[in-house]
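tool=predict chain=A
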Amino acid sequence: MDLEKGKQLYSTSHFQEAIIHLDNVVNYEFDSTAYELRASCFQKLEHHYKAIEDFDKVIEFNPLEFSYYYHRAVSKKAVFDFTGQIQDLHNCIHYSKKN
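tool=predict ok
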């Protein structure tokens, strides 16, 4: 229920409200979709350190998905972690070629 509500709020750009519902999901279980959506909400709200933390969890769950590295690189650039950004972009390219 909370995941669906979080998705709906995210899709209508109600990011702060979506985070509340996504928090409820991740507090009770590991759900990579909830972490991914919450990370995107944090990014849209420019809470980049929190976005990076959530993308870390999503990447840990599915390290072969190249798009997660790209999205995390965006937040790493925003917090001036250029070394981390470059690493993530390299991983993004590497895994996108494998898919």
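The longest helix spans residues 82-98. The radius of gyration is 13 Å.
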